[in-house]
Design goal:
Layout lengths: L1 H11 L11 H24 L63 H107 L1 H11 L5 H13 L14 E8 L5 E8 L4 H13 L14 E7 L5
Length: 325
């Protein structure tokens, strides 16, 4: 019973441990004793009568060592019973030890199922790779379409900008052309006006020169014409002319000298105030001062007019050196 329990516990136990090998000498001695005891029982049984059979029981022990079973407990040698003539000894009962349960070998996986499982896993992996490739291709296609759309929009904007620039250039060129034509027309008109004005002034100069020439040939008539046509000289009129000439006169020399030298010029002008001639009638003794005043008179043309719009055709203009301060 102990051997059976040990085998059951050994079979159900988690790790299997090989028991230590028992002593062979004790096993051999035990076997010899058992066989001797069996032989004695057989001899005694033959001597008994046949009328009363003698039952013999014997217990056989296997002396071989089981790999998975622990060592069996050593049975104690029983003393030989004394023969009793009246009651035969009991026949020894032979009992076989229970078979030792070997640990079940590990279950081998089903090869077909394993192959089917691997095949399904491979198919699943390939399907996942195919789906991933399709998604990647779709993503690349979307990105390419997006880039193409962006390029098309950029090109459209550039074309629109180019058209606007070309239109702006055309408008600018048209404006420049119109401006040039306008300036040309204005120049032509101005040149015509200046030409007409110059012709008019020239005509007035000619008439004035004729008048002066005729007056020089006939002094008496000249004096009478001057008296009859020349209005009374206005002091304000003379002051305005002197102020304009003074503003246009630049004398670089020094005015710090004794006395106050004076220069006098006779100025002939047209009815428009334009100066026909400037003639020096008195010198200040300082040529640089005289030239500066003469340049100022010519620069002041046309001279201011009177309040009524008339001018003195001939009038003296005098300047003193210290009047320029």
């Amino acid at each position: 019973m102990s051997a059976t329990k040990h085998n059951s516990s050994a079979a159900a136990g988690s790790p299997y441990q090989v028991p230590p090998e028992p002593n062979r000498m004790s096993s051999i001695g035990l076997a010899v004793g058992v066989h001797a005891l069996l032989l004695a029982f057989l001899v005694i049984g033959i001597n008994w009568t046949n009328n009363q059979p003698i039952a013999v029981e014997a217990e056989v022990w296997d002396t071989s060592v089981q790999q998975a079973a622990p060592p069996a407990p050593q049975p104690q040698a029983e003393p030989e019973p004394e023969p009793q003539p009246e009651t035969p000894p009991p026949t020894p009962r032979v009992t076989e030890p229970p078979p030792v349960a070997e640990p079940a070998p590990p279950k081998q996986p089903d090869i077909a199922l394993e192959r089917e499982k691997k095949r399904k896993e491979e198919l699943k992996r390939k399907e996942e790779e195919r789906v991933e490739r399709e998604q990647e291709l779709a993503k690349q296609k979307r990105e390419e379409e997006k880039k193409e759309k962006a390029l098309a929009e950029k090109k459209a904007r550039e074309d629109e900008k180019k058209k606007e620039q070309e239109l702006a250039k055309k408008e600018e060129a048209q404006k420049k052309k119109e401006k040039a034509e306008k300036e040309k027309a204005e120049k032509i008109a101005k040149a015509r006006a200046e030409k007409a004005e110059a012709a008019k002034l020239q005509k007035l100069r000619d008439e004035e020169m004729k008048r002066l020439t005729s007056g020089a040939g006939n002094p008496g008539s000249s004096g009478t014409a001057a008296k009859s046509t020349a209005p009374r000289i206005d002091k304000g009129y003379i002051a305005s002319i002197a102020a304009k000439i003074k503003g246009n006169t630049t004398y670089p020399g020094s005015t710090d000298m004794p006395g106050n030298p004076e220069v006098v010029f006779q100025v002939e002008q047209l009815p428009t105030g334009e100066i026909l001639s400037v003639r020096k009638t008195k010198s200040s003794g300082i040529p640089a001062f005289d030239d500066a005043v003469e340049r100022g008179i010519n620069k002041s043309s046309p001279l201011p007019k009177k309040k009524d719009g008339t001018v003195e055709r001939s009038l003296p203009v005098s300047f003193k050196l210290k009047d320029l301060n």
